[in-house]
Write a structure and sequence with these properties.
Blueprint (H helix, E strand, L loop, with lengths): L3 H10 L4 E5 L7 H10 L4 E5 L5 H12 L4 E5 L4 H9 L4 E3 L5 H7 L6 E2 L1 E2 L2 H9 L4 E4 L7 H9 L6 E4 L8 H5 L7 E3 L5 H5 L3 H12 L4
Parallel strand pairs: 1-2, 1-9, 2-3, 3-4, 4-5, 6-7, 7-8
Helix pairs in contact: 2-3, 2-10
This protein binds 3-phosphoglyceric acid.
The site of 3-phosphoglyceric acid has 13 residues, from β9.
């Protein structure tokens, strides 16, 4: 069961309405990247556990920018992964889905959990466990804006953070939906800009993203 305190904390962490989803290959890039996103007005980010550098990146950014930016951990598949990331400083945990072991373990985490759902049944099961806010993944492949609009009628109390195929072109449309509290995506920090150390361009993308209305 997700506690009410964690739900409230999660909703605060998911503002402003765009959460950059970062896959970091080189931990050295983590800090300048986070600073560029912050300079563009974003105050939360998600570092995915898809690379060997991910835990170091979480720890570097959490230590340096703890009071300015909330670092979450993404692509979490097991309780052990979540717990290692929390020890490294992660302030929230994101998963593309939900498993009984994650739901069980999350009860003891000191930080909130954003599990993923892609169907009405998954969303209802999570809501029954106290997860009023959920990741909607993979958003575009699961029907995108039309699917979320359809879910809003019967499940109006459940709010979503769609990710997967969300970009500068469609983020605004998602954010207009009554059941969308934020969107997540990698478009704010394209790999090529990170590799080139083009922090000014990333800051500009972040500024556009943070300006999207909710
Ligand atoms: C995620 O990890 O949450 C999504 O896969 C990000 O998807 P995107 O790369 O399509 O933005």
């Amino acid at each position: 069961m997700q506690s009410r305190e964690h739900q409230t904390a999660l909703r605060a962490l998911l503002q402003p309405a765009v959460i950059p989803v970062l896959t970091i290959d080189d931990a050295q890039t983590a800090l300048p990247l986070a600073r560029a996103l912050m300079a563009g007005g974003l105050t939360s980010l998600e570092i995915t556990l898809r690379t060997d550098a991910a835990l170091s990146a979480i720890s570097i950014v959490s230590e340096a920018l703890a009071s300015n930016i909330a670092v979450g951990v993404g692509t979490v598949r097991s309780p052990e992964q979540a717990e290692a990331a929390i020890r490294a400083g992660a302030r929230f945990v994101v998963s593309p889905g939900m498993t009984p072991s994650l739901i069980q373990a999350a009860q003891n985490w000191p930080v909130p959990f954003l599990p993923g759902a892609a169907t009405a049944s998954e969303a209802m099961a999570l809501a029954d466990m106290g997860y009023a806010t959920q990741k909607f993944f993979p958003a575009e492949a699961s029907g995108g804006v039309a699917a979320l609009k359809a879910l809003a009628a019967p499940l109006s109390d459940i709010k979503f953070c769609p990710t997967g195929g969300v970009d500068a072109g469609n983020a605004g449309e998602y954010l207009l939906l009554s059941n969308v509290v934020c969107v997540g995506g990698s478009w704010v920090a394209p790999k090529v800009l990170v590799e080139n150390g083009d922090w000014a361009s990333i800051e500009a993308l972040a500024r556009d993203a943070s300006g999207l209305a909710n």
